[in-house]
Amino acid sequence: MPTIYPLLGDPYEITADEDARMRETYKVAFEDSRKRREQETADARQAADYRAGLDAIDKNLSAHLGRELKLENAKTRVRAQHKQDFKAFQACCAKWGLPDLPAPPQAVAVFLSEESERGAAHVSRLARSISIVHTACNFSDPTRDILVRALLRLVRTDKSSPHKKEQKHG
């Protein structure tokens, strides 16, 4: 009869049937583990091949798009003014308990509405700064949402600020 030597405790013997069941159980577990490792290796190899293909496309296109790539990079470069504007946005988000990066469109709308008294040019600059920071970080641009676009349109077309309206009616 086979003997089992556990890590703790004394060795003990098991029957031939128990030995066969244990071997079959471990064989299945070992095979499952082996298959899983083989699949992970194949997936990693496929991902590496895919990445290499994408890198080759980038290299080939970059050679022909040098000027355009420079323009795109310049367009999304985060400047000091963008950082300053984004810090003001972060403070507003903190005040309202909203995330700032990536920001939901509602957070942008709250911030821009709070700043709307300072005029359309100011609000447009703030929206552009939020957009540039999100784009530079490879997040979707929350200023492209319909809520934010509608708010920007309202600020551009409304010649009086909400604060001034309240004073007129109050």
Task: Explain this structure.
This protein is mostly helical and 170 residues long. 73% of the residues lie in helices and 2% in strands. It has seven helices and two strands. Strands 1-2 form a two-stranded antiparallel sheet. Helix 4 runs parallel beside helix 6 (146-157) and helix 5 (120-136) runs antiparallel to helix 6. The radius of gyration is 31 Å and the shape is elongated. The chain starts with a strand and ends with a helix.
Question: Topology of this protein?
Answer:
Elements: E1 3-4, E2 12-13, H1 16-64, H2 66-75, H3 80-96, H4 105-115, H5 120-136, H6 146-157, H7 162-169
Antiparallel strand pairs: 1-2
Helix pairs in contact: 3-4, 3-5, 4-5, 4-6, 5-6
Annotation keywords:
170 residues; mainly alpha; DNA polymerase, domain 1; 2 domains; two-stranded antiparallel ribbon; 7 helices; 73% helix; elongated; disordered C terminus
Can you describe this structure in just a few lines?
It contains seven helices and two strands, in the order ββααααααα. By secondary structure, the protein is mostly helical.
